[in-house]
Amino acid sequence: MEVYVLGAVGLVFAAIGFQRGWLREVATIGGLLASWLFIVVVGPLLVWLVNRVAMMIRFLFAGGFDSSAADALLRHLRESPLVNPAEPTAVVGVALIALVAAAYLASNRWVEGAGALNGRILGALAALANGYLVLYLALRYLLPPQGSFPVLHGLTQVANALGSFLPTALLGGVIVTIGLALLSTRGAVTRGGGRATRPRARAQSA
Question: Domain map of the chain by residue range?
Fold first, then answer.
């Protein structure tokens, strides 16, 4: 199952990268890593904020301080938060989707798109690293608790497998893409220099 999931995701993201080009895909890797860092650092604060606002609204609708048992009501609301901090899928998942979408939209808006065919091929290669990261983040932060849906046990195993190879996959994808891009640029410059030198040599011989 893991092979089929990885293969399908890889094909989809490779097609996207072929359309977008390598510059946009490499920029998107930075955006995705920043999004992941934001979720790790700010995610618990988001959950606390949502629970805080939800508790205030529920408290007001239940009578607020005019209630005959305001203290007991507050205690009950604190003990039963809207979002369980141990299972913050609802809040963190929505934030992750928004951040990933923002990373792709920002790279489309401010980074140069695909040009020649070699740039598109490099984009497809870089997009494989992006697809790997997006799949891992989706499985980690969007899946409901495993006990709720036993059928998701296989996807949980996929997430664990992806996590174990994630640093190597990202680093390898970035290094290979940048290396090939540098070689491609150097080759284009060399060919351009050769074309510029030949007419000059003919002019001197004449």
Answer: 2-205
- Whether the CA torsion 143, 147, 151, 156 is positive or negative: it is positive
pLDDT tens-digit map of 79-89: 888 888 888 88
Q: How far apart are CA 74 and CA 136, in angstroms?
A: 38
pTM: 0.74
Distance CA 30, CA 111 (A): 12
Burial class of residue 136, CB neighbours in 10 A (0-12, 13-18, 19+): buried
At 33, the amino acid letter reads L
Q: Which residues 6+ apart lie within 8 Å of 127 measured at CB?
A: 13, 14, 16, 17, 18, 20, 25
* pLDDT higher at 161 or 20: 20
What is the distance between the alpha carbons of residues 3 and 43, in angstroms, rounded to a whole number? 31
Give the CA angle between residues 116, 119, 122 to the nearest 5°: 150
- Give the helix ranges, DSSP H, for the chain: 2-20, 22-61, 70-79, 89-110, 117-141, 153-205
Contacts of 124 (CB under 8 A, 6+ apart): 14, 15, 17, 18
Tokens of 18: 């072929």
- Which residues, 6+ apart, have CB-to-CB distance to 84 below 8 Å? none
pLDDT tens by residue, 12-65: 999 999 999 888 988 898 899 899 999 989 999 999 999 999 888 888 887 776
